[in-house]
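I am still getting used to backbone structure tokens and would like to learn alongside you. Please make up or recall a protein chain and show it to me in full. Would you write everything just below, so we can both look at the same thing?
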Amino acid sequence: MNELLGFLFGIVSMLGFGIQDAFMIKAARTFGGFRTSFYIILVVTLIMVPLGFFLFSFSGITLAILLGLLAVAVLSATALFAFNKGFHVGNPSIVATVASASGAVTAILSLIFFNQQLTAIQITAVALIVLGTILVSFKSGKLHLAKGHLGVGYAIIAMVGWGGFFFIISWAVQSVGWFTAGLLVEAMTVVVYLIYSTVTKTQVFIESKHYPYLVMLGVLNMIAFLSYNLGVTYGYTFVVAPVSAAAPVIVILFSLLVLKEGFPATRSLACCSRWSV
């Protein structure tokens, strides 16, 4: 294990997800949660397929791996859809902060199932992430789950979904490699979205003039996702996952400076507890 290299890839992943999320706010509010999510994953898949001729490997692929990746694809589709839906109906800074607690979920799961040992400092860091998520969900002593605060409800779905997603993908990466696991799960996620669209008769068409913007989001997503996979290849999941999940700092700055959406004192304290990790 090379913890420093894993940490550095975690930083790249965090920057990729953070920049993507900041620009994804506009897409989610323009095209809706489903179409934004679908096109991002479609772009990632279309870019990775030709790269697969050089990087894909069939070594290590078993039925168990494929079933695990199918579960990952369902979690990925659900989490990204919920995350974009949260951006569409709620405050992006709050949605991003709550959803990013997935890093704590992944770290806890890796501790339990991968037998990865946490130091006292790392345990404190995970506790701060959980505390920050609880605080950011409150306003005047009330949880943001009531009418008018649906964004947090969607963010919690994204948090749980991505927590499981990044945990299982870490296992798959160790078995079949960082690129193979990434390409398989992205392709499966596209299929999940197409099935959902067919069953629910959800519109997926977007005018071609918007494609460059969506391609940019897809490229950022691919860089962030593959950097995470490389991070858990060289480092420990319980280190890489929380680092990658620190992306909301970029979203919140974007919301404050560009969208002019407020972030009250209670939530500022919450974010300090999150970023102190």
